[in-house]
């Protein structure tokens, strides 16, 4: 085909393999939102490039459509299969990295994941977020500071984690109490907070849907290393969405969703202090972890 004919294709609106992107892109209206135009141009270019590279059979294309259809059907209020798909392809972490380029000294961020709920109970420091008493007790203490190390009073920490069997409350409705292992805490005048929980355990991402099947077909396991989720925010500072990880987890180097960063691996210690254990209602010795967070201002992030 000559260039002359190809040019004619785009202008005419007729389709050809060689000029497929141009034909599709030429159909966009000139007065559309510039950002949507930018995004859809990239979507069409990359989608066409992918199809041209892979050259799927009709049957393979139907398989791809069927996969996305099943992914959508798997979604409900408590299960977000598209987030899982984004997670296991590393796309969630890439979006997170692009949106948190900040050599500002703030704590590193990682994926939100699909198990956050927006209406977790608010607690005073010292509360136990483990509502059913199952698991190895863990004392979590920490401090929220600015990048100069000054305490941030009134910072909010939204915390959530899986139970000792590796399930979040929303995955076990009727088995775990609602809002088990979730809570929102506020720092005191010295930027400190503390609460009681249980040691987190590694768990598989939900793998009974199309994303789990895809993982198996790619020879990958579905496990996430043990972690506790945090969203930390304070007025005048950029909020961070992050986790802390246990240092001894077998899946630390092969997180199914690529969420691990070295700085987020926390120090877990054993505390042997019978009096303190008795005060907490914990056995002695018990596990403890310090989770300190540093927040940057929007101005600091802009500079980063
Ligand atoms: Fe998680």
Explain this structure to me?
With 304 residues, this protein is α+β, with helices and mostly antiparallel strands. It has 2 domains: 3-55, no CATH class; 102-303, Sandwich (Protocatechuate 3,4-Dioxygenase, subunit A), CATH 2.60.130.10. 30% of the residues lie in helices and 18% in strands. The chain has 9 helices and 11 strands. Strands 1, 4, 9, 10 and 11 form a 5-stranded mixed sheet that branches. The longest helix is centred in the first third of the chain and has 21 residues, at 34-54. The radius of gyration is 24 Å and the shape is globular. It starts with a helix and ends with a helix. The site of fe (ii) ion (FE2) has 6 residues, from strand 7.
User: In sequence order, what are the helices and strands, one letter per element?
Assistant: HHHHHHEEEEEHEEEEHEEH
Low-confidence stretches: none
Biggest β-sheet description: 5 strands, mixed
Fraction of residues in helix: 25-40%
Question: Which second-level CATH architecture of the largest domain applies?
Answer: Sandwich
What would the keywords be for this entry?
single chain, 304 residues, five-stranded mixed β-sheet, four-stranded antiparallel β-sheet, 9 helices, binds fe (ii) ion
How is the topology of this model organized?
Blueprint lengths: L2 H10 L7 H6 L8 H21 L3 H16 L7 H8 L2 H9 L37 E10 L9 E5 L21 E5 L5 E7 L4 E2 L5 H8 L5 E2 L2 E7 L6 E6 L22 E4 L2 H7 L5 E5 L2 E3 L2 H6 L1
Parallel strand pairs: 1-10, 1-11
Antiparallel strand pairs: 1-4, 2-3, 2-7, 5-6, 7-8, 9-10
Bound molecules: fe (ii) ion.
